[in-house]
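Human: Not sure, check this?
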Amino acid sequence: MPQLKAVFDQWMQKPTRTDAFILCLFVLLITWHPFYLHQQINLFELGLYLPGIDGILNGQIPYRDFFYLRGPVDLYLPALFMRFWGEHVAVLCAYFYAGTVMTLIICVIIARELLPSRIFFYMLVPVLVARTFPRVVFTYWGGLRYAWGLLAVLCVIYFLRGRKIGWLAAAGIFTAIAGLTSIEIGVCAFTAATVVLLWDGGWRRYLSAYCAAILTVVGSYFIYMAANGALADYLNTQWVIVTQMTKTFVQTEPVPANLFQILHALLIPNDKNFRQMTSVYCYLFLVTYLFLRRRSHQLDWMDKAAAAAAVYGF
C-alpha cells in the first residue's frame, strides 16, 4: 500500500519540464506522416495561397496589387518558407504540416502550465491530438495560423506566474502578429489578455505595456502599407471581411436558429449538432469553478491563466 500511495502521489504532482518534453516528442511521433505528399493536390485550398505567395515573391504588395481573404502574415510566412526551401507546392504543404504540429506543441506547453497534476497532463495530450490534428487537411490548411494567438496566451500565463512585464510585451507582439494573420485570432487573443489584465491588480500599467507592444508592431506595418499606397485597401478589405463574410459563404449544414433548437442540440445526444455544443459544458464547468473559487476567496494566478485560455478558445 505505501508503494501504491507513493506512485499515486508522484502522478498527482505538478507536470515537470521532462513531462512536457516527453509529450512534445509524443506529438511529433504520433503526427509523423512521411508520405504526406502522396496525394492529390487540393487546388481549392492551396489555390487560395499560391497566387498571393507568387505575387509577394515577385514584389507585389498585398491588397494593393491583389486581394487576399485573411491577413498579410498568413502569406508572408509561407512565402518566406518557399523563398528559402524552393518555390514548389510541396514546400507549401510542408509549411502547413510543420506549422500544425508546432501549434499542437504550443498547446502542450500551455497545458503544462494550467494542469495541476501529471496524470491529467498525460491523459489530456493524446485526446488533444486526436481531437484537433486535422489528419486529412494538415497539408493545406492551418499552419501557424492559430499559433500566434496561443503564443500570446502563453506569454500572458508566464506574466501571471512571474509578474515580469517583458512577458506582456511579448504577448502584445504575438497578438499583433495574430491580428495580422487573421483578424478574428487577433481579436480573441486581445480579448483574452485584456479580460485577465482588467481582472488583475495594477491593470493600467500592465495594459499600457501590452497595448504599446501591439501598437508598435501594427503601427510599423501600417506605416509600411501607407508608404506603398496599400493601407486604405487593407483596411477596406478587413472591414468587408468582418461585415460580409457570413453573408457571402452559404451555411451548408443546418444550425440551431432559435433558443429551442439550441437547447435541443445541447441536451439531446442524437441531435446532429450535439457534438458542436459539447464545449458549452466545458465552459459552464469552468465558469462555475471560477465563481466558487472567487466566492471562497481562493482565486490565484492559475485560475486567471485558465480564464485567459478559455476566453481565447471561445
